[in-house]
Design a protein that fits this description.
The chain has 422 residues and is α/β, with parallel strands linked by helices. Helices cover 31% and strands 18% of the residues. β4 and β5 form a beta hairpin. The structure holds flavin-adenine dinucleotide and iron/sulfur cluster (SF4) (2 copies).
Length: 422
């Protein structure tokens, strides 16, 4: 796919070499891990000390950065902004025809391709797969639209994406697009002013329940006797996990029948259990699926996001999102499970005989469309508060912003005096 760009271990640097289809995989420095860290790449950059001022786990700056990026913070009087952050337009969406190999229909890949085709950016920072492991993230710089094909699909694990900002600068790229998950985009936005770029386009995907690539392989081993043949996995909004195999076989497993309750306690790291930005509020355009009821779901957050969407013309179909069901019950049930697991108690399982019945009822009775997305946001809010209170009580004050307390309030969670956000 691509060529290693430089040698850093010795301190010597070589100019990055262009790989096939304009895909470059610069070599990475070693990270400097902190206790809560998702290896977004800042600690591997030329100035690792910036972690202290840009990291969402060390110095979260959601409201300040929302104002910097979108010109305003979330407006509670506008429908859904308390949950999803500032946006101009929300839609159910699909790319037609869908891109082969994409996680959903490939809106993300196509948007980045269009930015390169139109010459709006010199390069895109995105995440491809490691040569030896389809699931292991590998950050790349892409300079040709055809190179975006290498980045299609979700990988599980951490991608030190922002380390490549140094390489982009050394190559003289001043107009960039970045495709990233929320913890990467928080750090990017916090550094944006000092990057001195002429243009920055930020394409964000939602993210939840990430884990290390090693843990993810252990999960695949539990799901199938042929884990090495699994090429695709997604937690769908219809309460099923879809897995696809090399030979084209597809399996759909109801959430309830997943081997989740016997996973080790540290399967999901504390970073992702305490992460409060599910929907990538600091991106210009968020592309996900969770409010799409089987399609994709987009949030155009500002004018730059609008500009990107327009580049797709009639390649994208948009519809008003649907909303069905009630989220309160499922969020309460989830909260009880999180509370038990945070207290170190075993999860209460649905009895074996009832599982097929409940699994069939969930897609019919559970929240759907934007109500499903609202439910997931509230679940993440209560999970972050419970987990931080249990494991990092002194961080609650700094890490839980006011809007997250508002989302958790209907479930009886309010800040104590010592937890009031700064
Ligand atoms: C760990 C993880 C959890 C997610 N959870 C949710 C969720 O709960 N709800 C939801 O709506 N969406 C979630 N997403 C986003 C979702 O998987 C799709 O990426 C999104 O819907 C876009 O689909 P697409 O077909 O347009 O993407 P594609 O066109 O296939 O492009 C995917 C893009 O994702 C980027 N990418 C892939 N893996 C990573 C990674 N590990 N780190 C950083 N960037 C990566 C690549 O740069 C690529 O450009 C998650 C993504 C990740 C990585
Ligand atoms: S800024 Fe990135 S690299 Fe630094 S501590 Fe935070 S997640 Fe880790
Ligand atoms: S869940 Fe949050 S902290 Fe974890 S990888 Fe995703 S964006 Fe980063």
């Amino acid at each position: 796919m691509s060529t290693t760009a430089r040698t850093r271990a010795s301190g010597a640097t070589r100019l990055p070499v262009l790989g096939r289809n304009g895909v470059m995989t610069p070599e990475l420095r070693e990270p400097e891990y902190r206790d809560l860290c998702t290896d977004c790449g800042v600690s591997r950059s030329s100035d690792p000390h910036r972690c202290g001022s840009v990291c969402q786990f060390i110095r979260p700056r959601y409201a300040e950065l929302e104002a910097q990026v979108h010109g305003r913070t979330r407006d509670r009087s506008r429908p859904d902004e308390l949950h999803f952050g500032p946006f101009l337009q929300m839609a159910r969406a699909r790319l037609t025809p869908p891109l082969e190999g994409a996680q959903w229909t490939g809106i993300t890949t196509r948007l980045a391709e269009r930015l390169l085709e139109e010459g709006r950016v010199d390069a895109v920072l995105a995440t491809a797969s490691h040569e030896d492991d389809r699931w292991r993230p590998r950050p790349v710089l892409v300079t040709e639209a055809s190179g975006m094909a290498a980045c299609r699909g979700m990988k599980m694990g951490y991608s030190p994406l922002l380390a490549l900002l140094d390489d982009a600068r050394e190559m003289g790229f001043t107009r960039l697009a970045v495709v990233g998950i929320p913890c990467q985009i928080h750090a990017l936005r916090a550094m944006e002013k000092e990057l001195g770029l002429d243009a920055l386009y930020v394409l964000g995907t939602p993210c939840s329940d990430n884990t290390t690539t090693e843990n993810f392989h252990a999960f695949l081993n539990r799901l199938s006797e042929r884990p090495d043949e699994i090429t695709y996995l997604e937690f769908r909004a219809d309460y099923h996990v879809e897995i696809r195999f090399k030979e084209g076989q597809v399996r759909q497993i109801p959430f309830l029948q997943l081997p989740l309750s016997d996973l080790p306690d540290n399967f999901f790291p504390m970073t992702c259990k305490s992460c409060v930005d599910y929907v990538n509020v600091l991106s210009d355009l968020t592309v996900g699926y969770m409010g799409g009821d089987g399609d994709q779901w987009i949030l155009v957050r500002n004018e730059r996001g609008q500009e990107m969407l327009e580049l797709l013309g009639d390649e994208i179909e948009l519809e008003a999102p649907m909303s069905k069901g009630r989220r309160k019950g499922p969020v309460k049930g989830f909260m009880k499970a999180v509370q038990r697991s945070a207290d170190g108690l075993p999860l209460r399982k649905t009895p074996q005989w009832a599982r097929p019945i409940v699994a069939r009822l969930m897609p019919l009775l559970g929240p759907r469309g934007t109500e499903f997305a609202r439910a997931r946001l509230e679940m993440k809010a209560v999970e972050a508060i419970i987990q931080l209170r249990r494991h990092h009580p002194r961080r609650v004050k700094r890490m839980v912003p006011p809007h997250v307390w508002e989302l958790a309030n209907p479930y009886g969670l309010q800040p104590e005096a010592k937890e009031e956000p700064r």
